[in-house]
Design goal:
Keywords: Cytoplasm, Cytoplasmic vesicle, Endosome, Lipid-binding, Membrane, Protein transport, Transport. By secondary structure, the chain is α+β, with helices and mostly antiparallel strands. About 30% of the residues lie in helices and about 20% in strands.
Length: about 450
């Protein structure tokens, strides 16, 4: 979604002037149009509208590594957040939850960015500096049953206090959770007592939520280790379980293995997992490896009212978000898979972070160095993360691609109808190419 910004405004005012400088530096095609400011005071409704526009804008630019690594751009966005919500810079107490619901209160400034708050939480917990990069802060919505629905990972350019308080609802919380996907990195974290406790608390919580798939026998073994307070042994067993360390999304709809199929999507271990329940309550799972995704994109649309036209004065339909990725199902055969979910942008960010992690590992880097460090009063991205370049933009997909003719073995019991490709009205700039994409042969399926 793009918003126009008048030329007169772009040259005046703090945020507007920065937007003009950034457009000049990066070009209008790279930098999306910034939500315009108004010359007069905003009403509460207009403040909320601008907050929503700014949030969509931040989620959109997060998917561009070039902009995400620009301190000029991040500083511009931080000022825009404060200006929009009219929040003065002052010291406040901010509540951050651990995965088990434990509350951590930290004293921060309203203008503190995500790294500042993360460092404050780590200091309060006595987590060593070299382990901070293994964890991130997430904005979640607490549902009626106490479960967390993940809204997004808080980014470098966000002000956590402003982000959570601007939503004006007690449902929204900030949660600390590990930020990496490869369980091999657990060894680094488990060497430290605080790191071990954080991993343990998260794993116990994920098992209780049903995010990690556990058999009755495995559950009995885990319970025994829990009673003995054998945390490392507990985690070693948990690492062998399906969906360990995955992030689960709310129930949604996909066009795989057939149109309008209700699924539950989980992200982790360099894959997206789609779980569906077949007639007879049989649970099936389709796994889509990140290394087999040629590209992906997020699109949004507003469904028209029945009749096909919108009427003046009527409320607009709710925005529908879709994540579509082109997947190598067999040698030389690509298939588009589309997931319709309000959390589509969060899914896309998870895909990008999994690709980033794979590329860092391939280059011999370490996620221990992926934390942005404060040097001389400014933030600098480490050399290992700078090496992760943005994938090249690929051509818009061909809508006439032949539909998939066979299922992966995990979904062999599901009958498959022809599945059409998503519409191709998106430009090439909306498509995320994947540097981690690898060709496969039929024998690999």
């Amino acid at each position: 979604m793009h918003f126009s910004i008048p030329e007169t405004e772009s040259r005046s005012g703090d945020s507007g002037g920065s937007a003009y400088v950034l457009r000049k530096e990066y070009g209008a095609n790279v930098l999306p149009a910034f939500p315009p400011k108004k010359l007069f005071s905003l009403t509460p409704a207009e403040v909320e509208q601008r907050r929503e526009q700014l949030e969509k804008y931040m989620q959109a630019v997060r998917q561009d590594p070039l902009l995400g690594s620009s301190e000029t751009f991040n500083s511009f966005l931080r000022r825009a957040q404060q200006e929009t919500q009219q929040v003065p810079t002052e010291e406040v107490s901010l509540e951050v939850l651990l995965s088990n619901g434990q509350k951590v209160l930290v004293n921060v400034l309203t203008s503190d960015q995500t790294e500042d708050v993360l460092e404050a939480v780590a200091a309060k917990l006595d987590l060593p500096d070299d382990l901070i990069g293994y964890f991130s802060l997430f904005l979640v919505r607490e549902k009626e049953d106490g479960a967390f629905s993940f809204v997004r990972k808080l980014q470098e350019f966000e002000l956590p206090y402003v982000s959570v308080t601007s939503l004006r609802s007690q449902e929204y919380k900030i949660v600390l959770r590990k930020s990496y996907w490869d369980s091999a990195y657990d060894d680094d974290v488990m060497e430290n007592r605080v790191g071990l406790n954080l991993l343990y608390a998260q794993t116990v919580s994920d098992i209780e939520r049903g995010w990690i798939l556990v058999t009755k026998e495995q559950h009995r073994q885990l319970k025994s280790l829990q009673e003995k307070v054998s945390k490392k042994e507990f985690l070693r067993l948990a690492q062998t379980l399906r969906h360990y360390g995955y992030l689960r999304f709310d129930a949604c709809v996909a066009d795989f293995p057939e149109k309008d199929c209700p699924v539950v999507v989980s992200a982790g271990n360099s894959e997206l997992s789609l779980q569906l329940r077949l007639p007879g309550q049989q649970l099936r799972e389709g796994s889509f490896r990140v290394t087999r995704m040629r590209c992906w994109r997020v699109t949004s649309s507003v469904p028209l009212p029945s009749g096909g036209t919108s009427s003046p004065g009527r409320g607009r339909g709710e925005v529908r978000l879709e994540l579509a990725f082109e997947y190598l199902m067999s040698k030389d055969r690509l298939q588009w898979v589309t997931i319709t979910s309000p959390q589509a942008i969060m899914m896309s960010i998870c895909l990008q972070s999994m690709v980033d992690e794979l590329m860092v590992k391939k280059s011999g880097g370490s996620i221990r160095k992926m934390l942005r460090r404060r040097v001389g009063g400014t933030l600098r991205r480490s050399d290992s993360q700078q090496a992760v370049k943005s994938p090249p933009l690929l051509e818009s997909p061909d809508a006439t691609r032949e539909s998939m003719v066979k299922l992966s073995s995990k979904l062999s019991a599901v009958s498959l109808r022809g599945i059409g490709s998503p519409s191709t009205d998106a430009s090439a700039s909306d498509v995320h190419g994947n540097f981690a994409f690898e060709g496969i042969g039929d024998e690999d399926l």
